[in-house]
Specification:
Elements: H1 2-9, H2 16-24, H3 29-44, E1 47-50, E2 52-57, H4 83-95, E3 100-105, H5 113-126, E4 131-135, H6 141-150, E5 154-156, H7 164-170, H8 177-190, E6 193-200, H9 207-220, E7 224-229, H10 246-259, H11 269-274, H12 278-284, E8 289-290, H13 297-300, H14 316-329, E9 333-335
Parallel strand pairs: 1-8, 1-9, 2-3, 3-4, 4-5, 5-6, 6-7
Helix pairs in contact: 1-3, 2-9, 3-10, 5-6, 6-8
Bound molecules: 5'-deoxyadenosine (5AD) and FE2/S2 (inorganic) cluster.
5'-deoxyadenosine binds next to loops.
Length: 343
């Protein structure tokens, strides 16, 4: 294993077989995390970037088998924030020092291109020094271009799994890995800073699938890579499937840091949900971004992608303060600039 870790730190030229070995070996995790932390230190120092997350609609026309806000989940109380409510969240975030807003939602037909552009233009006009990140799913290229021209800079769209057959086991036939990837290439071509990623331990996932995910990411070369453990969501087809583990998720964070020294890697809420120190452990394994919630507290519980989600009761300011303490205690520093990727 030491030889493989050394390779990951130097030319990063591992075979598929070697990558699989790293993912399956647990007894060298401390050395792997230390190597990842050193690489992150060399590019980003102790900086941890914050992005204010605004979950502005939990309506979704899709029916992904794993997701707690899928169309078929009839128990979900649906909500949408209007333009003013979204701007108010940004205002709160700005006062707390955030310079990146992530507008995330289900694929909600109410938010037509005209409405999305109007929203982005309003945020852009009010917060000219901030990065605007959209995370609203699969759209035609022209739509992505229109949002970009309205002032959006970044787009998050996890590829979920790079393997077509595995993709088909996680999604209904109306969705395909091919279209997902098309979206990501379109976003890059338009000029967005792109974030992709996948769930760790999603149902039917194999080690080979994870290696394919790493290879796809190497081709795409995104600026941000978001991963978190799969966590079963009640009232979904996967409610009884086992969740992804902390150990494998952390190992993947470390491998991603080593393969992508410059990437922005969030210590995700899902990681914080499966372990009380999950996000801190993520930082020690190479993560350098946290995404505190800026959504109004009364809608938080309704945006439940999975069971047990943390931070649903905390006001934005409390979440901000809590994270600051956690990041510092872990030995890192919260940085509140835009946090653009360093290439
Ligand atoms: N467990 C963990 N992550 C999930 N996501 C959706 N449902 C779940 C779940 N049950 C992730 C997906 C999606 C992101 C917004 O949340 O990867 O892209
Ligand atoms: Fe949100 Fe701790 S990070 S409450």
């Amino acid at each position: 294993m030491n030889e493989l870790i050394r390779k990951l730190q130097t030319d990063r030229d591992l075979s598929d077989r070697e990558l699989a070995t790293v993912l399956q070996t647990g007894d060298s995790d401390d050395a792997l995390f230390a190597a990842a932390d050193a690489v992150r230190q060399s590019v980003y120092g102790k900086a941890v970037f914050v992005r204010g997350l605004i979950e502005f609609t939990n309506y979704c026309k899709n029916d992904c088998y794993y997701c707690g806000i899928r169309r078929g989940c009839k128990s979900v109380q649906r909500y949408r924030l209007d333009r003013q409510a979204i701007l108010d969240c940004c205002e709160t975030g700005y006062a707390l020092g955030y310079r990146t807003f992530v507008l995330q939602g289900g694929e909600d037909p109410y938010f037509t291109d005209a409405r999305v552009c109007d929203l982005v233009q309003a945020v852009r006009a009010r917060f000219p020094d901030c990065a605007i990140t959209l995370s609203i799913g699969e759209k035609p290229k022209d739509s992505y271009r229109a949002y970009f021209e309205s002032g959006a800079n970044r787009y998050l769209l996890r590829h979920e799994t790079a393997n077509d057959a595995h993709y088909a086991k996680l999604h209904p036939a109306s969705l395909s890995a091919e279209n997902r990837k098309r979206c990501l290439w379109d976003l890059k071509e338009i000029g967005y800073q792109v974030g992709s990623g996948f769930m760790v331990g999603s149902p039917f996932q194999t080690t080979e699938n994870l290696v394919e995910d790493l290879r796809f990411l190497q081709r795409l070369d995104p600026d941000m890579i978001g991963i978190g453990p799969f966590i079963p969501a009640p009232n979904t087809p996967f409610a009884d499937k086992p969740g992804g583990t902390l150990a494998l998720t952390l190992r993947l964070v470390a491998v991603l840091r080593l393969l992508f020294p410059h990437a922005l890697l969030p210590a995700t809420t899902a990681l914080g949900t499966i372990h009380p120190q999950g996000r801190e452990l993520g930082l020690h394994a190479g993560a350098n971004v946290v995404m505190p919630n800026l959504s109004p507290v009364d809608v938080r519980e309704k945006y439940a992608l999975y069971a047990g989600q943390i931070c649903t009761g905390e006001e934005a300011a409390e979440c901000r303060a809590c994270l600051e303490i956690r990041v510092r205690a872990a030995g890192y520093e919260v940085v509140t600039d835009r946090g653009d990727v360093r290439r």
